[in-house]
Specification:
Number of helices: 22
CATH superfamily of the largest domain: Histidine kinase-like ATPase, C-terminal domain
Strand order of the largest sheet: 5-4-3-6-2-1-7-8
Largest sheet: 8 strands, mixed
CATH topology of the largest domain: Heat Shock Protein 90
Bound molecules: adenosine-5'-diphosphate, magnesium ion
CATH architecture of the largest domain: 2-Layer Sandwich
Shape: elongated
Strand content: 15-25%
Structural class: alpha+beta
Length: 625
């Protein structure tokens, strides 16, 4: 009998499978089982229109048979089967699968990219088998055929015997090598685990004979091995069930089974969409931060299923970065198993699903905020930072989506508030949304800069997270109200003392000029303050960069040397001002000493380092003596 050669494309793929160094060889089983399931689907649809065929549910199944003695693994199905021509055409030529068309020669040799996550079909069996026999009998045909191949040389087809309709795929497994274990595919336990992982939701039963240890009858401590046929897969996926059939516990169990996390999710979202885009999804908002969440190692993504078959464990394209904490899965019938990563990225269907999912998550979070503040705040404690990054990243593209999910600690009632809550209770004469930045709530409360705003009775948002101010700079406004740092130059507050301050400033122009020169470029200006009430000094900033931002930027690994334009403000009602004036008139050295001390005090209040601690302590001693 003549051996026929594979078609060129098929040969390439085959070659890749034979020499595959890919570690995730397991997926061959997923591919073969999916084909079997497709074959049963086909006979099912045929039976709908062909009255000679009846679809008796119980007689359709897939069976897995490991045979240790002969080192074979057989996958049988009772599906539609293949005729001689179909064996020739379907197994001799690989269907124009998209994954291959996209790949270059070198990528093919390596194989990493395609084989892992995406379907590569029947030939993937050559990763584990060096000899494959396919025995098939097509529905409505009296004759069965045997297709055989030992790999690259080609294949043969000849008539043979087979009882019922369907297909047996017999894989003669490769011998173990130092690096590769093929015996594992004869092990019941391993097979079960692989089937569970990838093919749990195949609609037809996947059966296998399983050996069980049972207590011997009439004895307590003796066991016997019993062989029993079991259905390995659970068939109906939870996401296909109706929401009203499912309890919270069902969802929680699924979360645990899937190893999405060890915590109990704060909320689950079950989505069933049946419109232009069709998919089912179960999403979870976790309670706890995964240990690696705020590290570069963390990988976002949802499990992606095509028609119940897992095609990707972490599909990153389905989640925006700011919702990267969401766990769960998506199943869509409209996605092909044979899809490459590049195609997936450009897949219109997938983009629609991702967009849809994004708005669902947003809505659920908004609802949680509305209906269960306590739970939302717990969630926010874990993942609020990510939402703030979301506002800041990509030049604020997503700020509209996210601004109403933000919470900040407020001076009023000392608790977290939304921007909407803040704005809605602003007094009429208040022009800005005020905020103050610092390391902790305690420290912010003591900041001298807050005095005037607090005195006015205006609410202040406390920014303790280093991302806060960056995010707010991106927002710029909320409901037409601009954000204003309590440390910024003009606070927009009409103050009764303003005139007096201005007069004092004019009268003491020389003193302030002297102080500025004494500080030798370290501050942009020295001024009389109309925001300080009881404290002697503070910094304010003139430009866009605040002192807090300066700290964050300089702490970054690639240390950006951006400095805030600091202005030293002096409280003219404080006794220290009189002392300064006296020193300026009588003793310029003393005035310089005071200036340095006040400057360093302002640094300390801001949590900045003292540039020269030794000089500073010496200065203090000079004053004391
Ligand atoms: P795909 O499943 O994407 O079409 P495969 O390489 O997995 O690509 O399979 C090639 C073809 O072989 C299938 O399209 C199908 O026609 C045929 N085939 C494979 N396995 C079976 C089977 N168990 N029963 C019937 N036909 C099969
Ligand atoms: Mg297939």
């Amino acid at each position: 009998m003549a051996t026929k050669e594979f078609k060129a494309e098929s040969k390439r793929l085959l070659d890749m499978m034979i020499h595959s160094i890919y570690t995730q060889k397991d997926i061959f089983l997923r591919e073969i089982i999916s084909n079997a399931s497709d074959a049963i689907d086909k006979i099912y649809y045929k039976a709908l229109t062909d009255e000679n065929l009846t679809f008796d549910k119980d007689s359709y199944y897939i069976k897995i048979t490991p045979d240790k003695e002969n080192r074979t693994l057989t996958i049988s199905d009772t599906g539609i089967g293949m005729t001689e021509d179909e064996l020739e055409n379907n197994l001799g030529t690989i269907a124009q699968s998209g994954s291959l068309a996209f790949k270059t020669e070198t990528e093919l040799k390596d194989g990493h990219d395609i084989i892992g996550q995406f379907g590569v079909g029947f030939y993937s069996a050559f990763m584990v088998a060096d000899h494959i026999t396919v025995i098939s009998k097509a529905a409505g045909s009296g004759q069965a055929y045997k297709w055989e191949s030992k790999g690259a040389e080609g294949y043969t087809i000849e008539p043979c015997e087979k009882d019922g309709t369907g297909t047996d795929i017999i894989l003669k497994l490769k011998e173990n090598t130092e690096d590769d274990d093929y015996d594992q595919y004869l092990d019941e336990y391993r097979l079960k685990a692989i089937i569970k992982k990838y093919s749990d939701f195949i609609r037809y039963p996947i059966k296998m004979e399983v050996t069980e240890q049972r207590p011997k009858e009439g004895s307590d401590n003796e066991f016997e091995e019993v062989k029993e046929e079991q259905t390995i897969n659970s068939m109906v996926p939870i996401w296909r069930k109706n929401k009203n059939e499912l309890t919270d516990e069902d969802y929680e169990n699924f979360y645990t089974e899937k190893h999405y996390g060890y915590d109990k999710p704060v909320k689950h979202i079950h989505i069933k969409v049946d419109g232009t885009v069709r998919y089912n999804a179960i999403l979870y908002i976790p309670e706890n931060i995964p240990f690696d969440y705020y590290t570069p190692e963390y990988e976002k993504g949802l499990e992606l299923y095509s028609n119940g078959v897992l095609i990707m464990e972490k599909c990153a394209e389905l989640l925006p970065d700011y919702f990267s904490f969401v766990k769960g899965m998506v199943d869509s019938d409209d996605l092909s198993l044979n899809i490459s990563r590049e195609m997936l990225q450009h897949d219109r269907q997938l983009k629609l699903i991702a967009k849809n999912i994004k708005s669902k998550i947003k809505r659920e979070l908004a609802n949680l905020l509305k209906d269960n503040r306590e739970q939302y705040e717990a969630f926010y404690k874990s993942f609020g930072r990510q939402l703030k990054f979301g506002v800041y990243n990509e030049f604020g593209t997503h700020k509209e989506d996210l601004q109403d999910l933000l919470l900040f600690y407020s001076s009023k009632d000392k608790k977290l508030v939304t921007l909407d809550e803040y704005v809605s209770r602003m007094p009429e004469d208040q022009k800005y949304i005020y905020y103050a930045t610092g390391e902790s709530i305690d420290r912010i409360e003591k900041l001298p800069q807050t005095e005037l705003v607090a005195d006015k009775g205006y609410e202040i948002l406390y920014f303790t997270d280093d991302i806060d101010e960056f995010a707010i700079k991106m927002l710029m406004k909320y409901k037409e109200k601009e954000f204003k740092s309590v440390a910024s130059g003009d606070l927009g507050i009409e103050d009764d003392d303003k005139k007096e301050t201005e007069t004092e400033e004019k009268e003491n122009k020389d003193l302030f000029e002297f102080m500025k020169t004494a500080l030798d470029g370290k501050v942009k200006d020295v001024r009389a303050s109309h925001r300080l009430k009881s404290h002697p000094v503070c910094f304010t900033t003139a430009g866009e960069v605040s002192v807090e931002m300066e700290k964050v930027l300089s702490a970054m690994p690639n240390g950006q040397n951006v400095k805030a334009d600091k202005v030293l403000e002096i409280n003219i009602h404080h006794d220290i001002f009189r002392a300064l004036k006296a020193a300026f008139e009588n003793d310029k050295d003393k005035c310089k000493l005071y200036t340095n001390l006040l400057y360093n005090q302002a640094r300390l209040i801001e949590g900045l380092d003292i540039e020269d601690p030794v000089a500073f302590t010496n200065d203090i001693c000079k004053v004391m003596i």
